[in-house]
């Protein structure tokens, strides 16, 4: 019976420890925050007062417009202020793992110069902030009671198969030795 495998795609213990760090209320808030933001076209309802927006001259091609107009938008949001408006799950993930936008001083600095309009670049900065928050951690889906029972039953079946396999292999080895284990 070589190559026998009864593995199920279960979460690793480290993933389970990370999920157990947050209670169900935190995860529900994170799920509702994401779904509410998805309804609002991928932009979360964050108050503009938590960040400071500055404008500067854009770089790259564009001729006279680039040289004269301050269209590049830079958004600076202190992580502590951001943490008051986002779910704790995201805040702790940003704090521990960081983000490419996170500075050593604890601020999120996001810039955009993709368009010739200040307003469009400002909206793009807020959208990038939202995406950075969302991508900081994977929120597990809500598991129904039926699914939990099913997984528990599958794990019990897997454990039983493993025990049976081990006892068969043990018996086979004992038969090769010519007697039960311990009669040497």
Automatic annotation (TrEMBL):
PANTHER family: LARGE RIBOSOMAL SUBUNIT PROTEIN ML62 (PTHR11075:SF54), PEPTIDE CHAIN RELEASE FACTOR (PTHR11075). This is Prokaryotic-type class I peptide chain release factors domain-containing protein. Residues 1-14 have a biased composition (Low complexity). Residues 1-23, 161-184 are annotated as: Disordered. One of its GO terms (molecular function) is peptidyl-tRNA hydrolase activity. One of its GO terms (biological process) is mitochondrial translational termination. InterPro entries: Mito_Release_Factor_mL62 (IPR052104), Pep_chain_release_fac_I (IPR000352). It comes from Arthrobotrys flagrans (Nematode-trapping fungus). It comes from the Eukaryota. Residues 51-166 form the Prokaryotic-type class I peptide chain release factors domain. One of its GO terms (cellular component) is mitochondrial large ribosomal subunit.
């Amino acid at each position: 019976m070589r190559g026998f495998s009864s593995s199920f795609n279960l979460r690793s213990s480290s993933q389970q420890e990370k999920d157990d760090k947050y209670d169900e209320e935190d995860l529900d808030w994170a799920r509702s925050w994401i779904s509410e933001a998805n309804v609002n076209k991928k932009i979360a309802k964050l108050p503009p007062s938590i960040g400071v927006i500055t404008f500067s001259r854009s770089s790259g091609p564009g001729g006279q417009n680039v040289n004269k107009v301050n269209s590049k938008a830079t958004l600076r949001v202190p992580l502590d202020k951001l943490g008051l408006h986002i779910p704790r799950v995201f805040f702790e993930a940003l704090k521990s793992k960081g983000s490419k936008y996170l500075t050593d001083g604890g601020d999120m600095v996001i810039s955009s110069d993709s368009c010739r309009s200040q307003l469009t670049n400002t909206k793009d900065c807020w959208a990038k902030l939202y995406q950075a928050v969302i991508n900081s951690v994977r929120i597990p889906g809500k598991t129904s009671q039926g699914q939990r029972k099913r997984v528990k039953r599958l794990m019990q079946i897997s454990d039983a198969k493993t025990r049976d396999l081990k006892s068969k292999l043990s018996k086979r080895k004992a038969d090769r030795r010519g007697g039960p284990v311990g009669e040497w």
